[in-house]
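hey so u asked for the seq, here:
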Amino acid sequence: MSAHIATVNDGPSDRLLRGVPNFRDLGGLRTVGGQTIRSGVLFRSSGLEELTASDVTCLVDKIGLRTVIDLRSHHDHEIAEPLLGTGIEVVNIPIERDGAPTDLTRPMRPDGRADMSLVYTMLLHKSADRFAEIIKLLVNGATPAVFHCVSGKDRTGVVAALVLESVGVTREGVVADFMRTNTVLGELVAQLHRRPAYAGIVDQLPPGVLDVEPWYIADFLAGIDADHGGVRQWLMNRAGVTMATLDALTTLLVDTGRPT
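ran it, structure tokens below
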């Protein structure tokens, strides 16, 4: 499916799903070769528990969604009841670090804010095989697909960054996509107050945990560059993803038309 669903320039007022503030298409992002990510193939999102009836119709009839990849662990996993009976497959592939996502402790920076880039690196090392599982699922017929955690910011942001970098999206584009969560941050915090696993702790989370800053993802990716030679090298050498699989992912996601 290659028809336009949503582009990287769509603002929150243009979003497809009214009950899900952080749902968006990764289509439209530019690669280093001047090509673009296809629309309507891969989406990222916050939790899907508050989908409206019209949202479900959009996912089924407009997007033709086949697969939901839920990145949450048993600590904060919930069933997206609005999707029951739709035929959309829901696959749980937890992206985890040492410690539960609902723990109040985080590695901290000298400025008193949570070191979110280090948190992302912890996710990287703890869940290497799961990142490989996600990529293999995508290239084996799961798309159109959406991956999500609770807010669609951290675990989702790490998966998005790895996938996008592995198929050649520019670093600027990856950071810009990460920062789009800022436009709906207030809604996300309100949603966290309604989620059973987070309602009692949202206001106690360390400073920085609920923020969206460009260095969160930029420093995380710079660390992969310095330590492993880039995302593709990390995926092949540490996660066991083959070059053939990465090439298949690129074929799936990148529009191979003439660069503009």
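The chain has a mean pLDDT of 93. The CA atoms of residues 24 and 150 lie 14 Å apart.
lmk if thats what u needed
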